[in-house]
Amino acid sequence: MSALDDLAPVPFHDADAPQRARMLSRLADTELTVALLREPVHDQVELQIFDLDGARVALACDAEDRLADFFGHPVAYAALPGRVLAGLLNADGAGLLVNPGHPSEMLLDSGMLDWLTGALDAAPQEGQARLRLTAPDPQVAQALADPLAERLADLRGLVAGAALVGASGDGAGHLLVITGAPVDRQPAIAKALAEALAFLPAQPGGVDISFSDAPPPAGALLFDLTPPAPEEPAPRPKGPPILR
Prior knowledge:
Distance between the termini: 58 Å
Protein name: SseB protein N-terminal domain-containing protein
Number of strands: 11
CATH topology of the largest domain: Trna Endonuclease, Chain: A, domain 1
Shape: globular
CATH class of the largest domain: Alpha Beta
InterPro entries: SseB_N (IPR009839)
Region (Disordered): 218-244
Largest sheet: 6 strands, mixed
Organism: Paracoccus haeundaensis
Order of helices and strands: HHEEEHEHEEHEHEEHEE
Domain SseB protein N-terminal: 16-113
Mean pLDDT: 86
Low-confidence stretches: none
Number of domains: 2
């Protein structure tokens, strides 16, 4: 079972929209092995493109052995992040078949790849507003708790924690407030989280991203990303007494 398989308790095409979006978000950050026509020459690769029900698709798996098992023999391949492969195929108007025969099998047509690359272009807009922070709406917290926890877990060690809060004032909606993030990494962190939110159902008023080490309001949905304390080594047993 792979990380993509773990997100597929039901097949991708039978899942509801939020579950499919979570799988696509994970796919974008997964290194895929994509079948090639021949071994790469320098940095040039030529993807194998198949005709599947009248559509042109490439074939990729999230493990090299899965790709070889599908063909029944070793095959030339390139390892590319899902987001890079999606961009290449979208530019060519082709689709993508992922992990055929496995729980996370998905067939993404050119329209789906166009949506995926659009979501990956999501970026937060910088701005300032006078806001009053409150507890988040319970329905919003329930909808975002699990997918945000998954995405924030990828940032463990880079940020100390996060809090989902309600916001009212110059704007109305919600804020995801990040704590303990280095200033020079904040733009990249904000971009990664804006991408994650782009894959989730839109919430009333939207969800913005902010950085602050101030205490969150009562009732905030908290995400603790403190690295676990290292385990104490077990005491070594004493050796036998030294006889003189």
